[in-house]
């Protein structure tokens, strides 16, 4: 059975099946609602419910807020409609013309940029027109392997999809990518997913990244540069060791050549071999230490969930960031 989902204040609507999540039904209708993990954990897809109700197949497995339990809001990636529904999602107009698609691609190159990070370049199959906003991610499927999500550091004008892949200690797929995936291999991509992208405004931007959380921010920066940005931008990039900041030279080049950009690298476990004299500690704490007031900025945070949640808590609770100006992508 299908129900109608109305979106305020933009006046859009779509049909949603009773046994499919609201987000999944929106994708099928070519509409992108705010989301990130698609697993009911990050909370990015939470939307106000103006009328109607939803249910959850396994509510105990989800990170439900009190407002979700009360029916005032819902996690759209897991919410199943029980009837016609009206939700509030003003961001959908910014993603007009961008829809999720599944397509084949071919590995064009693989470059190891540190001892545990490789850059994978994939060309979409002929005839595929893949549009996305810098900062979004794709699901990558290799033949005979489960899919994995990776943020894109490229622009859609590149006609090549660039992924920054960290070799995980117990990562079956990442080890295959490093050790066996060959140039010209055919892979499957699905996306774009996520609503982690730079909003159109005049507000200063504070980027905060941990590890390969830099990948989508690299795409955002490339887009800002291409569009002639003049908004003040600062990037805080954190890693354990200097080798974890695998594009440190690029960031320093940006800082030297762009008068609107500054760069703050932060190491949490700097070793003597790093000969590090820069900032140390947790990357989100460096932002808190430097910024007494975040009320006029937009914060974009990407990386480990603990970093994203600590930034959300302290940027909003201690430094006055407006909750609606906190944008994140947690690698759950």
Task: Give an overview in words.
By secondary structure, the chain is of the alpha/beta class. The chain has three domains: 2-94, Ubiquitin-like (UB roll); 101-193, Translation factors (Elongation Factor Tu (Ef-tu), domain 3, Beta Barrel), CATH 2.40.30; 205-330, 3-Layer(aba) Sandwich (Rossmann fold), CATH 3.40.50.80. It is 19% helix and 32% strand. It is built from seven helices and 19 strands. The chain has a six-stranded antiparallel sheet with strand order 11-10-13-8-9-12. The chain has a six-stranded parallel sheet with strand order 17-16-15-14-18-19, sandwiched between helices. A five-stranded mixed sheet has the order 2-1-7-3-5. Strand 14, helix 4 (214-226) and strand 15 (233-239) form a beta-alpha-beta unit. The two termini are 32 Å apart. The model has no long low-confidence stretch (mean pLDDT 95).
């Amino acid at each position: 059975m299908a129900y109608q989902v109305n979106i305020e204040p933009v006046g859009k609507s779509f049909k949603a099946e009773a046994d499919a999540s609201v987000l999944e039904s929106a994708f099928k209708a070519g509409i992108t609602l705010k989301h990130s993990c698609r697993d009911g954990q990050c909370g990015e897809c939470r939307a106000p419910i103006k009328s109607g109700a939803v249910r959850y197949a396994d509510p105990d497995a989800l990170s439900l807020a009190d407002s979700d339990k009360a029916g005032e809001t819902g996690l759209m990636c897991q919410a199943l409609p029980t009837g016609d529904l009206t939700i509030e999602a003003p961001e959908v107009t910014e993603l007009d013309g961008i829809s999720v698609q599944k397509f084949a691609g071919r590995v064009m190159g693989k470059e190891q940029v540190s001892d545990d990070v490789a850059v994978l370049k994939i060309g979409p199959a002929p005839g595929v027109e893949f549009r996305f906003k810098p900062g979004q991610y794709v699901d990558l499927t290799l033949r005979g392997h489960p899919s994995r999500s990776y943020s894109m550091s490229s622009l859609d004008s590149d006609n090549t999809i660039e992924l920054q892949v960290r070799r995980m200690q117990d990562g079956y797929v990442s080890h295959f990518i490093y050790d066996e995936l060959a140039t010209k291999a055919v892979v499957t991509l699905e996306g774009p997913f996520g609503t982690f992208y730079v909003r159109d405004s005049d507000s200063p931007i504070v980027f905060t990244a941990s590890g390969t959380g830099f990948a989508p921010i690299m795409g955002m920066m490339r887009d800002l540069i291409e569009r002639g940005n003049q908004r003040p931008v600062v990037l805080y990039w954190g890693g354990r060791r200097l080798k974890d900041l695998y594009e440190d030279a690029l960031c320093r080049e940006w800082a030297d050549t762009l008068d609107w950009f500054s760069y703050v690298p932060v190491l949490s476990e700097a070793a003597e071999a790093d000969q590090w004299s820069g900032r140390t500690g947790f990357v989100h704490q460096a932002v808190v230490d430097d910024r007494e007031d975040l009320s006029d900025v937009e914060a974009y945070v990407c990386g480990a969930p603990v970093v994203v949640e600590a930034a959300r808590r302290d940027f909003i609770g201690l430094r006055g960031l407006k909750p609606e100006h906190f944008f994140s992508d947690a690698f759950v």
